[in-house]
Specification:
7-stranded mixed β-sheet, 5-stranded mixed β-sheet, globular
Length: 859
């Protein structure tokens, strides 16, 4: 039985049969304050190429009350397996479906949230990939586009926003009716409805005669923290940049951005009505890296208005192109848009996106960028580092290969040719070939249709005078992880080689050579006969997607002078290379710690600082010899306190070090400082101990047994908001007692009443790296429960549990054995198997890294 799944073949058959014209959807949300279900009435008009044929429409709902096809009543009992059969179609058809659909608390479909601050109800939809069918009957696949006209009944005093401009509501009494104009032809997954007593701030984007209304919305309890001017500024920069580069005007009637509660993703590109997680409304001080991340998300979703919404993939195997293009677009816009506050965006990209991609590409689940998506379950686990980050990295390389002007000329032709339609990868590549004059078939085969990663290393020999005698770039294709499909391949790379010299304690680039690398060895004759520089940096400027290694001499200089690079991008590349070597067991975790301790104090880019801080903690928790781990953690905690006290008062670095200390504090003095900052008996000049930092401090105190339920309850009374309730759940689950762990486990695994965000918070508190012994018994419980979780919970909820509760802290051969035994006997669904195999790979990698660290310690 199909359940809630849909195969590509089923979708292709239905697309060949149908052309969908229009949906009229009526939703009665008048009872939203009480929860439960809402009445959904869908009228859809469509044609069939083969009269007399049968098909089905998708719906996920507790009950169907009425089905009428071309005037004939169908039995509502025919609704089964999330499908309504549609027999004996006419050439032109009209279907009416009346159903009672359910509100959710999982962030899927129509999510219902009650704000503890004002007691009001707030709704929003999240439909990607297949969840529009939780709200109305729909042909749930991206290539069956149609127009959508929503009519919504909701409580008086509410705001209702959808893809079309919001109309004036009509009616009196306790409810009002909003009748929206039809949209353009779009896919069902980018339709949207946001409803509740949200508050909005308004502006407009104006360019000549063009005027696009802009709106920014949030809950009233967050309004004091909303900074609409900054959001509008980034948005308008994106409008200017994208309209120029795409040569196609913004295609929708307005552009609203709505910060909504308990949102699973960063944001969603609903046409003209983007939803974003409301953690982007910052309640407390955050570093500039958080503002940069928010700006990147805003630009990412705006780019989707063209690439994804105006022109949409035919099927989910091109999801990568949708997300990779938007990821590339966000970075290039930040780097180049006039007035951008983050022109160093490629540093962030190299430091974060590529690190994510390299990690994903070394898992047993690695796959080609252009993945083979057979059904909806495949795509739901494919929102990964390859789909977003590797794909965007390869697009960046493609731009370097064909030239940026030609790239955007091809994109312009693509938009004009396929507006409001559906496409395949070949449509974009064809447009780029026309614009650039390059044949991209071989490039596509090498980069998009193969899995795995390449490693580039310099090979340098010197003559007796210290001059370069030979210089070559060696390319390796490490074997794919066991279980991965396909074979490792060498690829063509366009890279730059940067040559750096020491000027005092500063590393200055003295030359740059750009070249094509192909095959296992590429000679670089331009460097023969030259003085050997202090540092040779392959892939300088980060043009290609490849792991890089430093030669022995360069590594020695970088280890002592990493902070000496005058530009942030080469520093980020060296940090990323060192981290990747640590993950691969080529650099001992204790040596990575030494590198961090020597270089992080001179790192000015706060995003890089925060990434290194996270990576050091992971290295110490997972990659160090367990017998040395406590010594390493003590060194890192002492350094964190030292940097915190020495940081410029009120600076981003000061806040970052405060959070780092709060993650690792262990001595009585360090924990006493956290407690003193929390209760006001200690002070560090310039450090604002605000709401979010208070919870960070309290979480560590709870995890170490220095704070109990009374203190958690007192802090919750100070901050009895949704965020406060989530933080309190984390603190309670973090307590180092068997009772606290049992309570947390039961609330997540044995009950299904928690909302998505509270469940996530409990899992975060449960998994404490200092509590391995306390958590050890839960490994067996995990394997006993995980299949049932997958079979009974929604995708988002089950994925949180499967990934979050895997015994990742039990880095032992026994954990591998238990995982293998479960994989061999449980007969898990492919998507479940993938998630568990990915988690297992983390244990395998950690054991290898621990062995390398142990060997380093015995030297």
């Amino acid at each position: 039985m199909p359940g809630t799944n849909l195969t590509r073949e089923e979708a292709r058959t239905r697309a060949d049969l149908l052309h969908v014209d229009a949906y009229d959807i009526e939703l009665d949300l008048g009872s939203a304050r009480a929860g439960g279900t809402f009445r959904s009435t869908t009228v859809v008009r469509f044609t069939a190429t083969t009269p007399g044929a049968d098909t089905f429409i998708d719906l996920v709902a507790p009950s169907v009350e009425e089905i009428t096809l071309n005037g004939a009543t169908l039995d509502p009992a025919s609704f089964a397996d999330s499908r309504i059969p549609l027999p004996n179609l006419a050439a032109e058809n009209e279907l009416r479906v009346v159903a009672d659909c359910a509100y959710t608390n999982t962030g899927e479909g129509l999510h219902r949230f009650v704000d503890p601050v004002d007691g009001e109800t707030y709704l929003y939809t999240q439909f990607e990939v297949p969840d529009a069918r939780r709200v109305f009957a729909t042909f749930e696949q991206p290539d069956l586009k149609a127009t959508f006209a929503f009519t919504v009944t909701a409580p008086e005093g509410w705001v209702v926003v959808s893809n079309s401009p919001t109309p004036t509501p009509v009616g009196d009494g306790a409810t009002r009716v909003w009748k929206f104009e039809p949209t353009g032809r779009i896919s069902s997954y980018i339709t949207a409805l946001i409803a509740g007593p949200y508050v909005g701030v308004f502006d407009s984007y104006e360019n000549g005669e063009q005027k696009v209304p802009l709106g920014v919305y949030c809950r009233p309890s967050l309004r004091e923290f909303l900074d609409p001017e900054a959001i509008f500024e980034v948005t308008k920069q994106g409008f200017d940049y994208f309209q120029e580069k795409f040569d196609y005007p913004y295609p929708f009637a307005k552009y609203d951005q709505l910060f909504v509660p308990e949102f699973n993703a960063g944001a969603m590109e609903n046409a003209g009505a983007v939803t974003l997680r409301d953690q982007y409304v910052f309640r407390s001080k955050v570093t500039d890296a958080a503002y940069e991340a928010r700006a990147a998300t805003i630009l990412h979703e705006l780019a989707h208005m063209w690439f994804g919404d105006l022109v949409t993939m035919e099927w989910w195997n091109d999801l990568w192109l949708n997300e990779s293009f938007a990821t590339f677009a966000e970075a290039v816009c930040q780097a180049e848009a006039p007035g951008s506050k983050w022109p160093h965006s490629w540093t962030t990209f190299a430091n974060q996106m590529k690190t994510w991609a390299y990690r994903q590409d070394q898992l047993p689940s690695t796959h080609p960028i252009m993945a083979d998506i057979n059904d909806l379950e495949d795509v739901q686990v494919n929102f990964d580092g390859i789909t977003y980050a590797k794909g965007a990295s390869v697009l960046k390389q493609l731009v370097a290969y064909v030239g940026q002007d030609a790239f955007f000329q091809g994109v312009q032709a693509y938009f004009k040719r396929h507006a409001w339609g559906n496409t395949r990868l070949s449509d974009l590549l064809g447009a780029l070939e026309e614009a650039s004059g390059r044949d991209l078939k071989a490039w596509s085969k090498s980069w998009l249709e193969t899995a795995g990663i390449n490693v580039l290393r310099p090979a340098i020999t010197l003559n007796t005078d210290g001059e370069i005698e030979t210089f070559a770039v060696l390319q390796e294709a490490p074997a794919l992880p066991a279980g991965a499909k396909g074979e490792a391949v060498l690829r063509p790379h366009r890279i730059a080689i940067g040559l750096y010299e020491l000027d005092g304690d500063t590393l200055v680039r003295t030359d740059r050579i750009e070249l094509d690398v192909d095959g296992p060895r590429t000679e670089v004759p331009e460097l023969v006969g030259r003085h050997r520089p202090a540092v040779v940096l392959l892939n300088d400027d980060d043009l290609s997607y490849a792991k890089i290694r430093l030669d022995e001499d360069s590594l020695a200089v970088v280890t002592e002078n990493l902070g000496g690079f005058t530009d942030s991008l080469p520093r980020a590349l060296c940090w990323a290379s060192a981290w990747d070597m640590t993950r691969d067991g080529e650099l001992a975790a204790r040596d990575y710690l030494a590198l961090a301790l020597s270089g992080i104090g001179r790192e000015s880019d706060i995003g890089v600082v925060q990434s290194v801080q996270r990576q050091v903690k992971l290295a110490l928790d997972a990659y160090t010899d367990p017998d040395w781990r406590e010594q390493g953690l003590a060194r890192w905690a002492a350094a964190a306190e030292e940097h915190l006290r020495a940081a410029e008062p009120g600076s981003d670095h000061q806040l970052a070090w405060a959070r780092t200390l709060a993650s690792v504090a262990r001595t009585d003095g360090q924990l006493g400082l956290l407690a003193g900052l929390l209760d006001g008996t200690a002070e560090i000049k310039g450090l604002a101990v605000d709401t979010e930092l208070r919870w960070t401090l309290l979480t560590r105190l709870a995890a170490t047994g220095r704070a109990d339920e009374a203190e958690i309850a007192a802090e919750l009374e100070r901050d009895n908001t949704a965020a406060g309730q989530e933080h309190a759940a984390t603190c309670r689950a973090a307590r180092p007692t068997a009772e606290a762990k049992a309570e947390a486990w039961a609330s997540v695994v044995e009950s299904d009443t928690l909302t998505n965000y509270v469940q996530e918070a409990v899992i975060a508190g449960f998994q404490q790296s200092d509590q391995r012994d306390l958590l050890a018994p839960y490994a067996a419980k995990y394997f006993a429960a995980v299949k049932g979780v997958w079979e009974t919970r929604s995708h988002e909820i089950s994925q949180q549990i499967i990934v979050g509760l895997y015994p990742a802290l039990q880095v032992t051969a026994a954990t591998l054995e238990a995982t293998d035994a479960w994989l061999a006997t449980a007969e898990p669904a492919p998507a479940l198997r993938r998630q568990v195999i990915e988690a297992r790979a983390g244990i395998e990698r950690a054991l290898k890294a621990q062995e390398a660290d142990r060997a380093a310690g015995s030297r």
